[in-house]
Amino acid sequence: MRRKWNKKKTITIAIISSCLIFLTGYIGHPVRKVELEGLITVAHRGASSYAPENTLPAFQKGLELGADFLECDVHLSKDGELIVIHDKRVDRTTDGTGPVRDFTLKEIKQLDAGSSFDEKYEGERIITLDELMKEFYGKIGILIELKSPALNPGIEEKVVELLEQYADLKSIVVQSFDVGAMKRIHELNSDVQIAVLMKNTFMPITSTYLDELTSFAEFINFNVSSLNKNVVEQIHERDRKVLVWSKKDRRLIEKAVRYGADGVITDFSRWPAEPEVTSAED
Ligand code: G3P
Ligand code: CA
Prior knowledge:
Blueprint: H1 2-28, E1 40-43, H2 56-64, E2 69-76, E3 82-84, H3 105-108, H4 129-136, E4 141-146, H5 155-163, E5 172-176, H6 179-188, E6 193-198, H7 207-214, E7 219-223, H8 229-237, E8 241-245, H9 249-259, E9 263-266
Parallel strand pairs: 1-2, 1-9, 2-4, 4-5, 5-6, 6-7, 7-8, 8-9
Antiparallel strand pairs: 2-3
Helix pairs in contact: 5-6
The structure holds SN-glycerol-3-phosphate and calcium ion (CA).
Calcium ion is lined by residues 71, 73, 145.
């Protein structure tokens, strides 16, 4: 009887112990950790999950969080200034309405670019690329995206002219979905590093096209949804780098690591410390 009880007790203790070991492991690792070390990190529109996208506080936060680069989007104003804003129109991110190219810089500077994100940023102003460079050049890399160059004629020349005021362009990259505009930048000054943003419609990408792109671009960048391991390998074979972006950071980082990408363009969502947030829509 005593032997039977002991056996039962032993089995019960074993089951409880297994459960405890399992639970301890689970509680100790409630969220799967993803290794960011070794990846180039780019703060997308600044650390745009913390502060209004493409504003000084978002860029400052990206610097504080230890990003390698700040990503920004650039349009031309009515009077030909390089304006840091994502959309063609000011409506989504400011209290104004209308296309960016219908505003002079003076008019743009009157818009509130903070309140739509959070009232505590009320009065935050849109900045120019010149202001961004003056504030951050030398402290962190800057990834400048030319938005719709076809709608902003002359934007390539203006960006190169601005960059040429800086002696060392190693920490600067210019990118666009517009391949022609990126070739133009390369022709204007081959010291400017180029990234080509790949549209999902360009996929699958042929090796001939990759040869052409990598003849002038240092980076070929993908949305997480169109990335695959094979294309990363082909780009690495050509001694070029791959950055990957997404509106969902968790998926982005996991996939970038799995496919061997060199870096991530991320909103710096507060995950895993806080629930993941989604960045603004296009
Ligand atoms: O850097 C890549 C990414 O910024 C491209 O998409 O719409 O956020 O400018 P979007
Ligand atoms: Ca962008």
